[in-house]
Design goal:
about 950 residues; mainly beta; 29-stranded antiparallel beta sheet; five-stranded mixed beta sheet; 9 helices; about 5% helix; globular
Length: about 950
């Protein structure tokens, strides 16, 4: 026999030989009284083959010979379940529902778990973490429901190493281990979601558009595996939507509450219903609506850090006072269908729709110290964000060794400014009207500039924790002259089309091979423009009318109990009535514009607007291969690589001549390929102690706005953003070590260290530009050579069940993460680089910790939760120097929740957020030099849930 024939014979025996023996499969679904149990450890006694149940609790064991066996199912917090079964004539064995807790033993944890809903959620989270192949954190749906968290970002802030960025007190973006939000992949059912938003800021999905009621559980992968998307340097946070139940399920929740800052009520209702339609087809559906009004009081200083004179660079150009009121509505719908063709072939459909409307009404006062005037601006608009996702997929068992999974999906996110309502839908935007009055200011330094006393050349300036204007004339409606009418238009969308195929082949009981491919096509469209009208009188046209605020419809300033109350209301003397939202909308009526003598000075065809709109496509072809090798019963190694080929093309316009608005089209493309090796090791030191090691390589793609070939001018935020299509992605070599000690009934201690070696880091350099008497912050993205990040994390979950009396119902959860990073920034003098200096990675907090103290019986649950995020560099201003960098100040928020079960089906609850009204505070260089301070107040709600 030739060598080739011998090889083919051996290969055929290796691959097909097992089919010649009497083998079949055993399958079932693991549940408890709360529903399906994911990640349960399932195996046959005295056998090497072990599997974990899927997200819907289902499992399948292949390659089982004829004979008598005993199935073993383990889940943390429950007694192990043993089920005897027989295999005869290669017939498949269906064990049906394998239920924990059906026969609890006296004084056992099994009984406790069933009667205490939070313990059940802890059992799920700890079991999923323990049985995971990688370094993972888990949050179950039950835990989400027991905390005062109404959106997806608020929910995950309780996980170890996770911090969030807030908007008006509500969580919006998620970051892992203190890294920038762009480095964390937030996915839905394994796929990144499109991220259309008002600022086109980054690839991160605004998680405040996701109601927490739609989520089944959340998995945070801190060390990636090759079958996950590789663009996640911080980690991958996967939000998994609810799965179909095995019996009729109905849950109803209704609540109402109060927001102290806006002095207004909130309303929240949700319903979840699922059932079996036939023995093969089952479904889950859910709907939620959350309406609330929220508010922010804000004070902001704009420093002259762009000036060349070192002393003057600390002067204050502008003091901004801003009052936000927002009527917000979140709608969410979820539908899941599961069809079992037979025990080896399943199809599923997952659909989700979410709409987020943020109706903002803003009143602003700008004290322009350098321009010697004061500006009052009124604006309002509906921010409207729509998101839908549809996914069709299947799971197929071919023979005894091959498993095939596939999915096709489409997701689309769309954002638009949607005001005023009287305009056609495509003409709407963000309307704003401003007025100007000349002003003389006191308490200025000898050079005529505004300073804090510590920065002033002669020591004359403000000395408190906030800045006062010291205006020498009264701000009066009959002196405030109409200056500009603005309509900021922004309509942008992202559409993703995906196809994915994964194959898993079990070579032996100790080795499993998995490989697959994924294609993603993303289309990004941004249609943005800034329309401006000005009075002809302001343009020097003789005989044109002059309009003062006193001639227009006004209303009382929206105090809602005060403005900047925690500071003692220092700005009350300069607060005054402003025009109504109805009057703002009227300014876009052609008749009104004609009577007020308004002339349009900026249209869609203006030079600055032409470059603001663009479109782009991104095609990503990914392929991976990985193997899971069970070296011994205690040691497992998972390793492989992922390859992602990226092809990006952007289309935009550039202005060739300002005089005649002559433009030409721009097309810019970039392709690059990344190879990402990954290795994860899991060592079960004993049944309760695990040591995990990981090396992974990951990356972060540039944000879409950073790749825009044009320039975007935003008069709402007074910013100018310039893109850079030549940006390279950021890469990181990641090293992780984690120790986990499971003890007691549901107790856990974790300790770990991590290190990231980063190259091509993207940062956004800031400078100040003055255009037409208006101060703008100019931002442009750039690549740096590299950075280093090191950290460690500690976590504990402990119930004090050995204490006497009522103390046995106490428990504590806490986690702490320390992060230290270093990168070298260029130093400039007179516009020329003269060297480098060391600083931290932008938006990287050094200290993060969460604490939860709870008291729980079978009916009563009381929890106090604290979330801390340390200070960090939020904006780098390389040309100005480190003493002009913007920092986010440390932040500690405290939330409270309590509930009481009045029956098996009905639970009453009370939730309070930010009970100490912790502000968001930014400063420049040193903490005494405040740059931005905002208060969102406390909010709360109470209600009931009904489970059928």
């Amino acid at each position: 026999m030739s060598r080739e024939s011998l090889f083919l014979t051996k290969a055929a025996f290796f691959l097909l030989g097992p089919l010649a023996f009497a083998q079949t499969s055993v399958h079932g679904t693991v549940i408890d009284s709360q529903g399906n149990l994911p990640n349960a450890l399932v195996y046959i006694e005295n056998s090497g083959q072990k599997v974990t149940s899927d997200t819907d609790g289902s499992f399948i064991l292949n390659n089982v010979h004829d004979g008598s066996y005993r199935l073993v199912v383990e889940y943390k917090g429950y007694d192990t379940v043993y089920i005897p079964f027989n295999v005869t004539d290669k017939k498949e064995v269906d064990l049906g529902l394998v239920k924990f807790g059906s026969k609890p033993k006296e004084n056992s944890i099994q009984e406790v778990v069933v009667t205490s809903v939070y313990k059940a959620s802890q059992a799920r989270a700890i079991t999923m973490k323990k049985n995971s192949n990688t370094i993972t954190e888990v949050l179950s749906a039950d835990a989400i429901g027991k905390l005062p968290d109404r959106n997806a970002a608020d929910a995950v802030q309780r996980m170890q190493g996770v911090s969030i960025e807030r908007d008006m007190g509500e969580g919006r973006f998620v970051a892992v281990r203190g890294t920038p939000i762009q480095w964390t992949a937030s996915t839905l059912n394994g796929n990144r979601m499109p991220s259309a938003s008002g600022d086109n800021a980054n690839r991160g999905v605004q998680m405040d558009i996701f109601p927490s009621e739609l989520i089944q559980n959340v998995r945070l992968s801190k060390a990636l595996t090759p079958d996950l998307d590789g663009d996640a340097i911080g980690g991958n946070v996967d939000f998994i939507t609810k799965t179909s139940p095995n019996k009729e399920t109905l849950a109803i929740s209704m609540s109402s509450g109060y927001v102290n800052m806006s002095k207004s009520p909130t309303y929240n209702s949700s319903i979840v219903y699922g059932n079996k339609i036939t023995n093969k087809l089952k479904f889950i559906s859910s709907a939620v609506i959350w309406e609330r009004s929220t508010a922010i009081d804000q004070m902001r200083n704009i420093f002259n850090y762009g000036l060349k004179d070192k002393t003057a660079s600390y002067s204050i150009n502008q003091l901004q006072l801003r009052d936000y009121l927002a009527n917000r509505r979140t709608l969410g719908f979820n539908l899941g269908l599961d069809y079992e063709i037979n025990s080896r072939n399943k199809l599923y459909f997952k659909g989700l729709y979410s709409q987020y409307k943020d109706g903002q009404s803003v009143r602003e006062t700008y004290f322009n110290f350098d321009n010697k005037n004061v500006t009052l601006q009124a604006r309002h608009a509906d921010y409207l964000t729509d998101l839908y996702s549809m996914q069709l997929g299947g799971n197929h068992q071919e023979g005894q060794r091959l498993e095939i999974n596939w999915s096709l999906s489409k997701a689309r996110s769309e954002f638009r400014f949607n005001s005023p309502e009287k305009l056609d839908r495509n003409e709407r935007g963000y309307p704003m009207v401003n007025f100007v009055q000349p002003m003389t200011y006191g308490n200025l330094s000898a050079d005529g500039r505004k300073y804090m006393a510590m920065d002033a050349p002669d020591g004359i300036g403000d000395t408190g924790s906030y800045i006062l204007p010291y205006n020498q004339q009264v701000i009066a409606a009959d002196k405030l002259k109409l200056n500009q009418v603005i309509l900021s238009q922004n309509h942008n969308s992202e559409t993703d089309l995906r196809g994915q195929l994964d194959l898993k082949y079990k070579i032996s009981d100790n080795f499993e091979l998995k490989f697959g491919t994924k294609y993603n096509n993303k289309n990004k469209n941004v249609d943005s423009s800034l329309l401006v009208w000005m009075p002809k009188s302001a343009l020097g046209i003789p005989g044109a009318p002059v309009t003062f605020m006193s001639q227009l419809e006004r209303e009382a300033f929206p105090y809602k109990g005060g403005f900047m109350n925690p500071l003692g209301n220092p700005y009350n003397p300069v607060i005054m009535d402003q025009i109504t939202n109805g009057q703002i909308d009227q300014m876009y009526n052609p008749g009104t514009q004609n009577s007020l003598g308004l002339m349009q000075v900026s249209s869609k065809d203006s030079s600055s607007n032409i470059t603001s709109s663009y479109r782009g496509t991104e095609n990503v072809w990914a392929a991976y291969m990985m193997g899971t090798w069970k070296v011994t019963d205690q040691l497992q190694i998972l390793g492989g690589f992922r390859n992602e080929y990226n092809d990006i093309t952007f289309w935009g316009k550039k202005v060739v001549s300002d005089k005649d608005h002559k433009t030409e089209d721009i097309k810019d493309s970039k392709t690059y390929n990344v190879i990402l090796p990954m290795v994860n090791m899991k060592w079960n030191i004993n049944s309760n102690r695990i040591l995990r090691l990981a090396y992974t390589r990951s990356f972060a793609r540039p944000d879409f706005n950073d790749l825009n070939p044009g320039t975007i001018v935003n008069d709402i935020t007074n910013t100018i953003t310039q893109g850079n299509t030549k940006l390279d992605p950021t890469f990181s070599n990641n090293f992780d070590l984690m120790f986990e000690n499971y003890f007691g009934k549901l107790d856990l201690i974790t300790a770990g260290v991590f290190y990231k070696d980063i190259t091509n880091l993207i940062y956004k350099d800031q400078s100040v530009a003055d255009i037409g008497g208006r101060t703008y912050t100019f931002t442009a993205p750039k690549n740096l050579e590299g950075a280093k990040l090191f950290g460690f994390e500690l976590g504990i979950s402990k119930r004090f069940e050995n204490l006497p009396g009522f103390l046995k119902n106490l428990g504590f959860e806490g986690n702490y993460t320390y992060i230290s990073s270093k990168m070298n920034m260029p130093i400039y003098e007179n516009g020329q680089q003269t060297g480098t200096m060391s600083t931290t990675i932008p938006n990287q907090a050094k200290h993060i910790f969460n604490t939860i103290l709870f008291y729980e019986t079978s009916k009563l649950m009381f929890r106090v939760a604290g979330n801390y995020k340390g200070n960090y560099v939020s904006e780098i201003r390389a040309a100005a120097g480190a003493d002009h960098y913007q920092y986010f100040d440390k932040n500690f928020t405290v939330d409270l929740s309590t509930s009481y079960s009045i029956s098996k089906n009905v639970r009453l609850f009370l939730e309070l957020n930010n009970i100490f009204n912790e502000p968001n505070r930014y400063y420049m260089g040193t903490k005494d030099r405040v740059e931005n301070m905002s208060y969102s107040g406390m909010r709360g709600q109470m209600g009931f849930t009904y489970n059928f």
